[in-house]
Amino acid sequence: MNCQEVQVLLHPYSDDELDLVRHVEIEEHLSGCQECSVQVKHLQSLRATVSSASLYHRAPARLRARVQLPFPKQRRSPRRAVLAAGVLFLIGVSATVGMILSRTGTSADDRFAESVVAGHVRSLQVNHLTDMPSTDRHTVKPWFRGKLDFSPQVADLTPQGYSLAGGRLDYLTDRPVAALVYYRRFHVINLFTWPAGDENEKAVLGLARQGYNIRYWQRAGMSYWVISDLNEQELDDFVRLFQEHSEVLQR
Known about the structure:
Layout: H1 3-14, H2 20-30, H3 34-50, H4 61-67, H5 78-104, H6 108-123, E1 132-133, H7 137-143, E2 163-172, E3 175-184, E4 187-195, E5 202-209, E6 212-219, E7 222-228, H8 232-250
Antiparallel strand pairs: 1-2, 2-3, 3-4, 4-7, 5-6, 6-7
Helix pairs in contact: 1-3
Protein name: Anti-sigma factor
Domain Putative zinc-finger: 3-36
Transmembrane segments: 81-101
């Protein structure tokens, strides 16, 4: 296993969640890789700190006794019951209206962003990051042949600090897409791409969801969505470099 493959598995490895084969493979890698070994030590130290008994305090006996007391039963007058029912009705109406407004006010891009976040998080699970692990674009690009009805652009950005890790098939809103995986240090970048519904060009737009930065655009009849926990500047640099290399490849 190389460092990129090991980095994805360090968290489940530290939590003893891997099968025996993967565990042994990582042990062999750590025996000869100081950088990954340091990462494991940091994770183990964090786990030990969070589990420390000094962070947990037993509630005083007096507080526990008060919490366990049964609630006193109160008699409610008919008038108070009617008022309470009215309040509950208004709350229900307000909640329903709020849901309707929130749904109608959510754009298609916002809804699609939720699917992109779900795809990114899903890919970070064990053995789900790549179907074809390779740093060679001439290996990754042909792998999609016969699996999709289009050929995705695959750029080699390793000299610029964004290393290609491989590709996989994914599904967003019930359609198959190509997912290209890149690394920036220990940060995973997922780039989802598929044919757009039209030939219109759309400039790069940005979103932030659940701690992730997202960029999406449309060019040359293809849609692109990029997501990572990278900072905005580095993610914008990745998008710019990918676009520049794609233009060169298309010539």
